[in-house]
Design a protein that fits this description.
Elements lengths: L7 H7 L12 E5 L2 E4 L4 E3 L3 H4 L8 H13 L12 H11 L8 E5 L2 H16 L3 E5 L8 H5 L4 H4 L9 E4 L14 E7 L1 E2 L5 E2 L2 H14 L2 E5 L23 E4 L10 E5 L4 H9 L11
Parallel strand pairs: 5-6, 5-7, 7-10, 10-11
Antiparallel strand pairs: 1-2, 2-3, 4-12, 8-9, 11-12
The structure holds pyridoxal-5'-phosphate.
The site of pyridoxal-5'-phosphate has 15 residues, from helix 5.
């Protein structure tokens, strides 16, 4: 059994930790469903980077695409100013998976950023500043995304977060009257992931869509964990017979590259506005 020198002590001294008890597995190689440790052991990866490596590790097509692009050009310009063909073709391919009228992809770098972008877009589009999310939701760790989560263990130490957030219970139709015309958007995971893979009824999602139409609140679906084919359809919302106003996606869409997107439709007058006035300026945006 071939073993490798350990960097564990350096890892513990120099890599800032998220957890008090990191797993600390030293990975020297990953392939398909397997991780190979510095200890010479082969492990079946049942986590896949938490819903990220949906096509397995080192998929030859992903590796080839990354190598080709790295050798062609990498980062060239900020804010989506240049036409970069791989990005354009990806946007078109993603648009082809979407029901009308969704047809525009805004590239970001993570799920949290996709949520931040969706929150800002909804506020600007509606001119309203309050948002509704579901209890037990997880939408990310940046301050805006974290504000949408109700779990105190994540929020502790960071208060006050973004104001104007109210909560309803996931899959509880009785709550829907709490959505009123003061809200810019209702932001919901189509399948609640962190809460334990909670699946709502079709009736809940159809009534939620209806209530958003009545009040003018945008329906934002977080498909960061459940989108990109994880539920049997490309998007989980397809199974509910509804079309959201904005979709946030990330994780599995990048094939292990740090990408996120939020999806809207071109006639959303705010999209053009947003691009022009740069309300979500950022450097990378899935460049290359
Ligand atoms: C449903 C959901 N939304 C948002 C996020 C945040 O994504 P990221 O960690 O890429 O910022 C996650 C990550 O676990 C998630 O599962």
């Amino acid at each position: 059994m071939k073993t490798f020198p350990s960097n564990k002590a350096l890892f513990l001294s120099h890599v800032a930790q998220n957890s008090a008890f990191p797993i600390g597995l030293e990975v020297v190689k990953a392939d398909n469903i397997y991780l190979y440790g510095a200890d010479g052991q082969k492990y079946i990866d049942l986590i896949s980077g938490i819903a990220v490596s949906t096509l397995g590790h080192n998929h030859p097509k992903i590796v080839a695409a990354v190598q080709t692009q790295a050798a062609t050009h990498m980062h060239v310009m900020v804010y989506g100013e240049f036409v970069q063909s791989p990005q354009v073709l990806l946007a078109k391919a993603i648009s082809d998976t979407l029901p009308d009228p969704l047809d525009n992809v805004f590239f970001v770098n993570s799920g949290s950023e996709a949520i931040e972008g969706a929150m800002k877009l909804a506020k600007r589009y509606t001119g309203r500043h309050e948002l509704i999310a579901c209890r037990q939701a997880y939408h990310g760790a940046t301050q805006g995304a974290l504000s949408l989560g109700s779990d105190e263990s994540f929020r502790q130490g960071f208060m006050p977060l973004v104001p104007g957030i109210s909560y309803i219970d996931f899959d509880d139709e009785h709550n829907l009257d709490n959505i009123t015309d003061k809200f810019a958007a209702v932001i919901v995971e189509t399948v609640q992931g962190e809460a334990g893979v909670r699946i709502a009824s079709s009736s809940f999602f159809q009534k939620l869509r209806h209530r958003c139409n009545e009040t003018g609140a945008l329906l934002v679906l977080d498909e960061i964990q459940c989108g990109f084919g994880r539920t049997g359809t490309f998007w989980a919302f397809e199974q509910y017979g509804i079309v959201p106003d904005i979709i946030a996606a990330a994780k599995g869409m990048g094939g292990a590259c740090p990408w996120g997107i939020y999806l809207v439709f071109r006639d959303h007058e705010c999209l053009a506005d947003q691009a022009g006035s740069g309300s979500y300026l950022h450097l990378w945006g899935a460049s290359g």
